[in-house]
Automatic annotation (TrEMBL):
This is Type-4 uracil-DNA glycosylase. It comes from Mycolicibacterium neworleansense. The lineage of its organism: Bacteria, Bacillati, Actinomycetota, Actinomycetes, Mycobacteriales. Keywords: 4Fe-4S, DNA damage, DNA repair, Hydrolase, Iron, Iron-sulfur, Metal-binding. GO terms for biological process: DNA repair. GO terms for molecular function: 4 iron, 4 sulfur cluster binding; deaminated base DNA N-glycosylase activity; metal ion binding. InterPro entries: UDG_Type-4/5, Ura-DNA_glyco_family4, Uracil-DNA_glycosylase-like, Uracil-DNA_glycosylase-like_sf.
Length: 233
């Protein structure tokens, strides 16, 4: 089986979704992970952030963005004057994928495969439908591709206010793609400040869309159809 769909209940209650996700066996990742790491935050959040997958700290704690990347995100949110308590945070993949070092003691992050991302997509769609946010921030390539297709490139559309069709049953959430906070940590030390400032700028753009009315055809906006090859209109 390579889909979480059979495990996703028909409900708009986050507590029920989170409870069901604990028993998800939609892909093999559940076998090695400590636990499912479901989203958390404000149920009526106007802004939703989607990352790649839980890391080692998140896998142990059972909560998203509590490790090193989470600390970078907290710092970036503070710099952008955004209250994390007002947001909903989750990941495209709900189980930690990792490999181990030679001694088998350290768990090293491994990027989820396209099959694993697709398998977990029903959970993201259920969260989107339940939260009904005004804007979704896609943190990194995996999160962006999970909603906008495998051909989407963050580098081409970073910081743009995009719109997609068919993601939620009602409404049309804005989408803003940016780097994952972990990219700030992995980058060269001499460019980390620039990378961090770029993340802050993108978060500000996303947050601003929750306080403005979208104008069709405005500069820097576009429409995507979530598919294997997204179409720009």
């Amino acid at each position: 089986m390579n889909s979480a769909a059979p495990f996703v209940p028909e409900t708009h209650q986050l507590s029920e979704l989170a409870k069901a996700a604990r028993h998800c066996k939609g892909c093999p990742l559940y076998q090695d992970a400590t636990q499912t790491v479901f989203g958390s935050g404000r149920p009526s959040a106007r802004m939703m952030l989607i990352g790649e997958q839980p890391g080692d700290r998140e896998d142990r704690a059972g909560a998203p963005f509590v490790g090193p990347a989470g600390r970078v995100l907290d710092k970036a949110l503070a710099a952008a004057e955004i209250d994390r308590a007002e947001l909903y945070l989750t990941n495209a993949v709900k189980h930690f994928k990792f490999t181990t070092n030679e001694r088998g003691k350290r768990r090293i992050h491994k990027t989820p495969s396209r099959t694993e991302v697709e398998a977990c997509r029903p959970w993201i769609l259920a969260e989107l439908d339940t939260i009904a946010p005004e804007v979704v921030v896609l943190l990194g390539a995996t999160a962006a591709k999970s909603l906008l297709g495998n051909d989407f490139r963050v580098t081409r559309h970073r910081g743009e206010v995009l719109h997609s069709t068919g993601l939620v049953s009602e409404g049309d959430p804005a989408l803003v793609a940016t780097i994952h906070p972990s990219a700030v940590l992995r980058g060269p030390s001499e460019s980390r400040d620039e990378a961090f400032d770029g993340l802050v700028a993108d978060l500000r753009i996303a947050y601003a869309t929750t306080r403005t009315v979208r104008s069709e055809g405005s500069a820097g906006s576009g429409t995507f159809i979530p598919a294997e090859s997204p179409v720009r209109r």
